[in-house]
Write a structure and sequence with these properties.
The chain is an alpha+beta fold and 267 residues long. It is built from ten helices and four strands. It has two domains: 147 residues, dinb family like domain (Four Helix Bundle (Hemerythrin (Met), subunit A), Up-down Bundle), CATH 1.20.120.450; 86 residues, SCP2 sterol-binding domain (Nonspecific Lipid-transfer Protein, Chain A).
């Protein structure tokens, strides 16, 4: 519980930042396309609401969640998109109310999970703290899509540490879902935090490493930025591969984002 409560507090703060952004938009702005192909702002918030409700179901009724998950696996290519589209078709005020209710219900449900108990999910089962971290990661990632859609520059916060930590914890998962053998040795990861301090993971003498700004690393592992546009440095062949396939989210490999078009240099 001691580990869970600060993560939940950061999840609440991250959610409120996004809530403040979308609640100030006129209803027609919810139809604004975002960088995620085919998804509007309404899709983004609808997806967060749907996922929160799925997480509550996984905690309250694992059997019902497993049945729903198995049904979703049969149409995996459209399952998530269809759920987002169904929510996006509702009036924005209803979508926003649903998201607010769902995230409150999830916070209460997570606080009731016994320490050490694992929650079924679309990827590997996870503890309550890991689930809260995953929800924060998704909230930040989809919030980035919304901010990009409306041209708002969000200031990075210390909450990025949760996203970065999850991106590092899912290293081996990223290799597996891309049909690759995970590395056997840990990497050294050094990220420059928003306040200029250094966040560190892994042994200092690790043979392979990743370094760069925490914001860029978080954009990479949530696939909200193309590696070519990010200031990340990999030392070692496996670390280099990881930066090409990293994903902090459950499910099959994402398509990622295209590199920004750069002007041609003069010859």
């Amino acid at each position: 519980m001691a580990d869970l409560e600060p993560v939940l507090a950061d999840l609440q703060a991250e959610s409120q930042d996004l809530d403040d952004l979308v609640s100030a938009l006129p209803p027609e702005a919810w139809m604004t396309p975002t960088p995620a192909q085919g998804w509007t702002i309404a899709h983004q918030i609808g997806h967060l609401a749907w996922t929160d409700e799925a997480a509550v179901l996984a905690i309250a009724d694992p059997v019902a969640f497993q049945e729903a998950m198995q049904g979703g696996l049969a149409v995996l290519g459209t399952y998530v998109d269809d759920a987002a589209a169904e929510r996006a078709a509702r009036p924005p005020a209803d979508v926003l109310r649903g998201w607010r209710a769902g995230r409150a219900a999830l916070a209460a449900a997570l606080l009731g999970v016994p320490p050490g108990e694992r929650i079924l999910w679309f990827g590997p089962p996870m503890t309550a703290t890991s689930m809260a971290t995953a929800r924060l990661m998704e909230t930040w990632a989809h919030g980035s899509d919304v901010a990009d859609a409306v041209g708002v520059r969000r200031m990075p916060t210390p909450r990025l540490r949760h996203v970065a930590h999850l991106g590092i914890r899912t290293r081996d998962f990223a290799f597996v879902v891309n049909d690759r053998t995970p590395p056997t040795q840990p990497f050294r990861v050094e990220l420059t935090a928003p306040d200029g301090s250094l966040w560190e993971w892994g042994p200092p003498d690790a043979a392979q490493s990743v370094r760069g700004p925490a914001l860029d690393f978080c954009r990479l592992v949530t696939q909200r930025g193309n590696r070519a546009d990010l200031a990340l440095e990999a030392n070692g062949p496996d670390a280099n591969t990881w930066l090409d396939i990293a994903q902090a989210f459950a499910g099959p490999p994402g398509a990622g984002r295209s590199a920004r078009v750069r002007p041609a240099t003069a010859s």
